User: Fold these one by one.
Assistant:
Number 1:
Amino acid sequence: MTQQTIVWIAGTGWDAVPGTDKRLVQALPPDQHVLWIDPPVPVRNMKGLAALTSAGKSPDAVAQNVLRVKVSALPGVTRFGVRRVTGVLLSRTIRRALSGSGRRASAVVVAFPLARFPQWADTQKILYVTDDWLGGSSLMGFSRNEVKRVLVKNLREAHNVAAVSEYLSSELRQIRLLREDEGPEPPFTLLPNGCQEAERTGLQSDPQPIAGLVGQLNERLDLDVLEAVQAKGVRIMVIGPRADRDPEFGRRLDRFLAAANVQWLGRVAPEDLAFHLRQLGVGLTPYADTRFNRASFPLKTLEYLAAGVPVVSTDIPAARWLSTEHVEISATPQTFARNVVHALSKPADLIQRQQCRDFAANHSWAMRARQFLDLLEAGSRNQALLGPKES
């Protein structure tokens, strides 16, 4: 019997730092089988060229219900001409993996900015936009024009469009409205990021007066905010790898991380992160006011709350959407720093910390997985209503 499978064309590789895609897939129930497609990786030698013809033949079992497929591509994946070849290789690899594993696609999810829906796919098509791909194209090293071209085509072909924030969903609608020949509009579904629901034991009874920053360190951060907090003499624990590119930003980040009251732990193992989070008195979400950040839904905010840690955030739409007293929104660096100092000056409150965790439990990845399955069900109805989509 052919097994029904969700084909998930992912935005990051399975072995990369876990992001939206992987966390949502891992939260799906065991009866939901997924064929996870890593983003195409350019070949570098003759052995890699051989992989072009064999890709997809032997998917790896990376989880109980997940098979992973690595996709090889020619060098210059984003270049004109090579892009088309890459698309053909991607589509062929997916078909080969489905056929070889005795599976049939029950749905195709595209969550990679440069991937088109496969032309052979006659099942429902879900476009899952996890960030402002247009605004962040340069950060990702992609051509903005190419990202826009692919996005417009996928918006036309999708039976359902999911986005991690209301701001992003609105932006996608505007992009789609630029074309007047589209026909019926697919539903736009809000599917925000989530968090791991913390165990109900081990709540830190005596958190330290430490402010914590978790996640990749790059140009999305507002260094004015971090420097204002550091200047107050607050002890700051920073957890996460550097991924900055701009030289001036890098020099400022160097100075911040070298400050006497800043401790940078770099990347830590997932099992160690929970321990460090429970030590914190407050979590920091210091995102700069950019279009990319306004469209995003920071993972770190809910991760702090799931650990029982209240949050101080810059004024971004995702923080306002959460609409909770446990996330203090700050409009300026000075206000942000004062709110951090105030949060750390209050005595430990176990009731508040448990309330943070209870709030986060309503936004767990398990909850998001259920919302995604509802989306699939709605997509099946919409597919029947809208009929076959152009590819």
Number 2:
Amino acid sequence: MTEAQIILSHSRESGIVGIASGEQYKWAHTALAESGFQRGKAGAWHLPAGDTGTTVLDLVRCAQRHRTSVHTSSRRFIGDAASDLARQLPGRWEASVEIYSHPAWQEDLVPWIWDGGELGRALQNERIPYAAILTDTVRDTTLLFVERPGSHLDYLVGAFAPEGFEEGYGDPHAPHSIVLPPFPGRAAQALTDRYLPAYDRAVHARRTAAIASALDEIRSEYETWQAMVASGRYSDATPLDADALCTAVEEFLDQSWHRFLPVLDHAPPCSTSAAPPSVRGPRMLRPSPA
């Protein structure tokens, strides 16, 4: 594969869409600009409305002069696919496109993907030059939607780490991404019936584990502090005088408060339901011929 590529797909709103990829992606940008394409949202390029003078062959010839290869995708523009899926999901979902022209930009995603399945592995081992972000604006759930590597039709969807979880990479509580078909109705059904309930259960389990871990650390530090006070000495047998005792108390309280912060973050959401949530609401999807 060359150091710069242009991936072409079709959008019902923008017509032919070009996406630059590769370590020398700026060469691709130059070829697109010289061929009459205009840069739009998220860095995708498209031909202006009514432009009938530019052909794919013109782009290929121009790209060759700039050491850039041109590839035609077998799929429609991922922004269209994600928007159609978002409209089928219950609640209020928004879709946006992200482009990772340089491979390093894709690598930046890895720590934040909360996934124990195929999507996490694909981000580490496969080239994914673009994706779509699906956001539940009510519940603050954020999903990554990508074309499944090695497939001409299917997609993968998985989650970003929820707020308060810090990085998601390697978390044993992470849900497993699922494969979605190219039909928005069926994809939305799979997401609603299978993935989102599993995601909610994983969030609940992760929050519960964070609370338990914080309380265990506080308990352990309290027992250590109690033993020190009872003995009148530090752990290295140094005598503990009155001033040192006051300092030890302050340090213990400060450390305990710091340890308690995860409880403040995770306990309120957990307290809203005694059991892990299994559904997000009524299973009502918008009608779809797919």
Number 3:
Amino acid sequence: MAELSFPRFPLFVQHRFPGLLLTAAIAGGAAWLAQRPQFAGLGLGALTLAIMLGIIVGNTLYPALAVQCDAGVLLAKQKLLRLGIILFGFRITLQQIADVGLSGVLIDALTLSATFFVTCLLGIRLLKLDRETVWLIGAGSSICGAAAVLATEPVVKAAPSKVAVAVATVVLYGTLAILLYPPLWLLAQAHFPQLSAAQFGIFTGSTVHEVAQVVAAGHAIGPDAENSAVIAKMLRVMMLAPFLLCLSGWLRRTPHGTPRQGIAFPWFALGFIGVALFNSLHLLPAAWVADINQLANLLLAMAMAALGLTTRFSALRQAGAKPLLLGLMVFVWLIVGGGAINLLAQHFLH
């Protein structure tokens, strides 16, 4: 195949433009599909669909385009990811914390910490999985699904196949939660009549994986549950940056971190915090913030597409069934253990 050339662009752009164009096209296709009822009803957002499309293209058409596109795909997977995570802070304001109160913050923090610990315990000690896969599954299950997996990847320096496996688990079980949580609400009403829809919404937001899945599950239950679920989920998202800082620091101080001399301080995590603080001041017009959020969506979707393009089915087959088993065990923990944390926190703080 003839090599592509873009003489009107600087050399830096020439080398990266084909790959960036390909990831943008996949991201655009994913955004279009995410608006279709059959996908939106399943809680499959643009990020999830972007990696799915990327994997399909990566295992069919991409090998013939790799020489021309690898540089741009790598840029999307690394630099655009970090920029997208920073801009993701425009979805968060500190004022949102007051809407769910101290109990919501405490529930999110306890659920996040306990879920990551349980994931590490089950994955490393019981299933004997490699640490990078376990950390990525733990991050995705504890915080905000695929976006958390992508944000954690630069810290733990995991292979693309391991990232894809982790994303697959949070997508699978987060989607299952959409179908399971509305019947759980009916069951909770029968056994815990004092539990309000808003409180169940906090449970939903603190335990379901993806933002889109939280919205879908909360919407199926009712408006009160949906509102509190989204706020609780946003608080979890805001905990992404402190989590990455703690994980990076822990890796530096453990024997497992000594070979990782290249672990960089996650400056993009501090950028995320700074943007959230700035956004709390409401200095920008709402239309600008909406446009920035759309840009963040595009950048993250391009990063997901790039991840999918560099993932091979052969590597996924080598991972085996253990990651999916770990995802299932963590899913059960989120419902049972997360439910217990919610009930105890709401009992003692109300």
Number 4:
Amino acid sequence: MTRPLRTPDDLVAADLAPPEALAELARVAERYAVAITPPMAELAQACEGVARQFVPTPAELLATPDERADPIGDDAHSPVEGIVHRYPDRVLLKANHACAVYCRFCFRREMVGPDGVRPLSPAQLDAAMAYVAGRPEVWEVIVTGGDPLILSPRRLADIGRRLAAIEHVKVVRFHTRVPAVDPDKVTDELVQALKASGKAAWVALHANHPDELTPAARAACARIVEAGIPMVSQTVLLKGVNDEPAVLEALMRGFVEARIKPYYLHHGDLAPGTGHFRTSIDEGQAVMRDLRGRLSGLAQPTYVLDIPGGHGKVPVGPTYVHADEVEDPAGKRHVYPPAQD
């Protein structure tokens, strides 16, 4: 397999869908973009947890009343095209809206892909950079999309050099799936482009199942880390993919072994047609409680909910404090005295 799978016919030919599903899959593909890179297609043939993330299903056409096209409120906080400014000290820069793979649970699924929002024009990128330059409170720029690492090293370096000219920006963070889903793309030239801003560059890797951390993926991440760029992880809690503690434990251990600090475990967003992926918050808290007893602090992500409507992320992990008692990882409670007056 040498090219991405992009059509229902491709999925059938790769034995990722039965021929009788073609008509239904065509309806899904008309609505939401499909792309599976060769490494992920190969994994999907052997791992249900990977296949479920990338292979479309008719369930995606079943939207519920509480789902919304812009579930975390990007639009409400977008002062200019390509910028989301939800928190005072950081902005998202959405330079492009295409990805190497299209996740079936994506919270931006209405705007990514061939029929989604167009990449920023030169004039729009100028306006986005001018917005950042005009706001001295912006300390960090998070380059996202889409997936910024599908851009050429030349275009990535250009973004970096333009951010380098903005003195008050100190940190540039890239959010990506590419090191896992298309590791050969992480060349020395691309890694150098990530450093072009001269700022403190970080890379956040999105992966949801331990099988995604293949030897090739780990090697791609090593190229990034050994160039002096620290990495953190982002994972979405997904029913049927990683909602069992043992699976998340293996994933978090894999991150740490690859020198990637586990960062966020996201509760599933209210994107249209993604209800079959969402757990309840109670279920997520139970998984996190189990991980607290299994994993060192270095391997613990923060379980977060992005409040619908653009109100920001909040931690929603389990509590261990109950009045004058504190609960240990085994579930036993212990009296903890109150502060003395």
